[in-house]
Structure formats: C-alpha cells, structure tokens
Input
Amino acid sequence: MSFTSLIHAVIDGILTGGVYALMAAGLTLVFGVMDIINIAQGALVVLGAYMSYELSTKLGIDLFVGLLITVPAFFVLGVAMEWGLMRRLRDQDRTAMSILVTYAVAIIIEGVLSVTFGVDYVQLNASYVNSTFHILGFYLPYIYVFGFILAVVMLAALYYALYRTQFGRGVRASLQNRTAAELIGVNVSRVRAVSVGIGVSVTAAGGMLFGATNAFNPSSGYDLISRLLSIVVLAGLGSIGGALVAALFMVTLEDVVAVVWSPVWATLVYYASLVVVLSFMPNGLFGKAAVRAQ
Amino acid sequence: MTARIPVRALGVVIALAILGLFPLIFSNPTDTTIAVFTLIFMVSASAWNMFSGNSGYIALGHAVYYGCGAYALTLLANHLGFAAGWGVFALVPVAGIVAGLVAIPTGLIALRARRHTFVVITIAFMFIFQLAASNLGFTGGTSGLQPPTPLWSVTTYNDNFYWVTAIVLVFTVALAWAVRRSRFGLQLLAIRDDEERARGLGVRVGRVKLSAFVLSAIPIGMAGAIYAYFLGQIFPQFAFDPLFDLSIALMAFMGGLGTVAGPLLGALVLESLQQYFTIQSGASQVYLIIYGALFLAVVLLLPRGIIPSVEELIRNRRARSAGGAGSGPPEPEDRGAGVVKPAGVA
Output
C-alpha cells in the first residue's frame, strides 16, 4: 500500500459516492413523502441503465443527451407507480405493504429486462467512458468526473426545489402533517404523485451513470438496493443532503478499506460500520429524533 | 361460534392427512422434490411469522439463521465424521440451537432500533454473514462446502427428507400455535399495536422481543440444515440469500400476517408455484413476470392476506344470514379511498 493508492481510493470513493447519492436520492425522497420503502429502486436504476444502453447502441444518442428522453419517461413511470400502486395502500401498514408491492414491481422489471435483453452483462459505452485523464499520478476515466458533476447538480436542484420553492414547501408540509397541509390548501395527492415522479426521474440519471461505471445485468438491482437502503437509512430517511454525505462516507470507506486491508473485506466493513453507527444513532446521521411520533 | 372449533379441528386433521398421504400418492421424484422445498419454506415462513407477524417488526435478515443452520450441519457432520445416512439428521436440532445462539447477539443489536432502521440492520446482518462465509477459511469460501451424501435411491432419498421436514414442520406449527395462544403471544401483539403503551402496562418489551426473535430463528436454522443436507452442497450466496428473506416475508403476508395458518398457506402456494414455474419454463425468465404480477394482484386485492380476508367474508355472510341487523356492520375496508380522502379530518 502506497500513499498514492490511498489518495486514489479517496478520490475514487468521492466520485463514485456522488453517483450513489444520486441513486439514493430518489429512494429517500419517495420515503420522506410517502412513507414508502421502494425496493424497486435498484431495478429502476438498472432499467434506466438499459434505456440509456438502447438509446446509445440502437439510435446512437449520446448518454447525457439521452437523459432528456429517459428522465421525462421515468417521471411518467413514477407518477403511474404512485397512482396505480402506492396510493392504494392503506395508511396503517403502508410501509410494510410498500416493501411487498415494490418488490413485486422489481421482480416484474427484472423479468421484462431478462426476457428483452438476456442475462449477459453489458456496459454503457462512449468516448468519455473509455478515455482517461491524468491526475495525481494515476488515470481516471472522464465519466467519473462528469458523473460526479451531474450528480451534484441534480442533487442541488432537488435540494433547491424542496427547500426554496412553493412546491417544496407543499412537499414538506404534507410530509410533516398531512391533514394540516390539506387544511392550508396543499393538494396532497398531487404533491405526492409529483414527488414520486421526481424521485423516479432522478433515478434515470443515476441509472445511466451506474451503467457507465459498472457492468450490469437485469438482476444487478438486488445488490444495489441493499446498498442504497443502507445509505438512505444511515443518512436519516428523507434527508437529501444527508444522502450525499452518507454515500460519500460509505463508498470512500469501502474503497479505503480495500486498499489498506483487502478488497474481500471491504464490503463487510461497509455493512458492519452501518450496524455500528445505527446502533448508536438509530435515526441515522441527519434524521430527526422520533419523527412524527405516532 | 359453536361450529367454529370443530371446523378448525377438522381443518387440522385434513391438513395432517394430506401431509401424511402425499408421498404415498405422489412418488414421482420431481413432485417430491417440489414437496420438500415447499415444506422447508412452510417451516421458514411460519417461524418468521412467529416473530415478525406477531410483533410487527419486519425482519429481512432471517437468512442469517437459515445459513447458520446450513453451515452448522455441514461443518459438524464433516468434522465429527458422521457417516452419510439417517445419523446426520440428528444434527438438525443442533443446527437449530446454533441458529438460536447466533440470534441472541444479532437480535440484541438489531432490536435496539425501531421500524425502518430495524429492517435495514437485519438486511445488513444478512450481508455481513454472507460476506464472512465467502471469505473465511473454515466455511470453504465461495466454493462452499459439501455435507456427506447418503446413498439412497432417488425415491427413498426424497421420501426420507420429506418425512424429516414434515416432523420439523409439525413441531414449528405447534410452537407457533402455542405462542399465539399464550400470554407471551398476547404481549407480542401488544408490542405490535403500541410498544410504548405495552411497556407502560408492564410488558418487558426487550425481553419479549428478543425471546420471540430467538424462538423464530431456531426452526429456520433447522430448515437451513435440512436444505444443506438435501442439496448436498452449500454456497454462501444460497445459504445467505436476500431473496429468501423477501420470499418468506411475502409468503406470510400473502397468507395473513400474524395468523398461524396464513404463512403455511402462503408458502404452500408460492413455493410450489415458483418451483413448478422454474421447472416448466427452464431457463426462460417469463415466470418472473407472471410471479411478480400474481404477487402484485394478491397484495392489492387481498391487502390483509388470504386467511383474514376469507375469514371476514365468512363472518359477514354468517352475520347476514343470521338476520343482519345488530350483528355489526362489516368492517370498512376502504383501501385506496382512505388514502385519497383526508384521513384525519373525518
């Protein structure tokens, strides 16, 4: 282990962490607004990756330009999921039932992708995926930097929309107290549908970046969902800024352990550190204590 | 109400008769293989429900105890030099105890958290155990381990495993029934409904939750042990499988969370269906779509699970035929509508 490889691990962890934060943002937003744990988030990431794959290989559309198509398409998908499934769950056991419903969605997405694309691994290709640049004594593909910038920009936009706009106030109001929000004139059902739409559409971008930095197949979503769920819970459910911090922390930790100790133990340390942190901070790093005592 | 107990007793007798007669009628190895897997999942779903269904804490990491049972049987059989055959089955209860012992520290840590954090900690434990099994020396790493393989003919092989699993199943269901009927079970239900109030009323919530958690891990460990011996090999990603966690939760939900019969019915339907689809469609993934769509339909149409929904239907019909008025209105189901309307205003 040398000092440069340690630096390399930290930089790699930060850049990849940004992508993970973007993938986790949709999960945390949907949870915050709907009290729904979206197990299909991993499958949606993979779906987004496959859509970008189709657009770039069949139609020759650039990965980033393709987002102009996939992001709105995912918005529609998210609204449809909210309207068709999530709002049909009863309030009292909504969270538990949501795990089942979204798991079913994940299975269906996996099945459709397997039938359409087969189970072989693929990866997104573009000039900036393959070419690298030189920094601090090692080479880094451009996509990591572009991906990090895109992730940070989208998270900032999401943060702005939630905390600085009328819509965001509506979202946060219906999150804190549904009845009160309705009494002051917030259309809670619409706010919820739009929030899930936004949460899912952000995932399309996360999927493209995931597909460009990892090889994937239809069942890649399962490995992903447990990681994203860890990030979101570590951050404190519903916290977008927290998701960024938690993702950077977890992914960097994993990369550093891989260099300092051994790659085979890195993932174990990842989950073990999650358990340790949550044992002492059950609400996560940025979660409010005892949210909405029921 | 008087007709109720005989109906239930009759159901138990019929279920036991089917359990006993099945291998005598179906001797085709394909059928009996499906049957053994189905029984393994009936044990697991029933045991999972004993903790999660009664307490309301959704654990998605019980594969830890399944895997521990599987590895315990394999390691003990190999290191203690058990000859392949009936003798190895003696290790099944031992594997259950090992799983129960593992459940004590993991349960203590996980149960410090509530709700979503609890769910995620159990998932994290599952991955920690899977990764440890993949990387440690004594578990054979990713290439796994092999328990001794008995030299029985295919039919006897399946039948023997069927009988052993059936015994474990009867034990598990008896345990689940006893828990449900006991003061301990009532304390669990109180925790599910309102943990703070239960604590205030003098329920030792920490102790009750941990006991139920450990109790539910034991049959799952036994199921895992049978699974390892039945398959003749064990790999980390199959012993500690995240899909196992979701499957048993789904089975319990589908049949009816917190009931004794529900998880059994759910496992019977889902596992046999899944095994059948897998065999029928071979490598094709179409079954995933059918399975997912079916699953979705059940969750949305019968949100409380099959057993409670059917019971309610019968109760309503009885109330109606008994003369209607005064026998209580049917419980408003109101799913969907309740979400759209302002729930708190009314």
Q: What stands out?
A: Chain A touches chain B through 54 residues (CB under 8 Å).
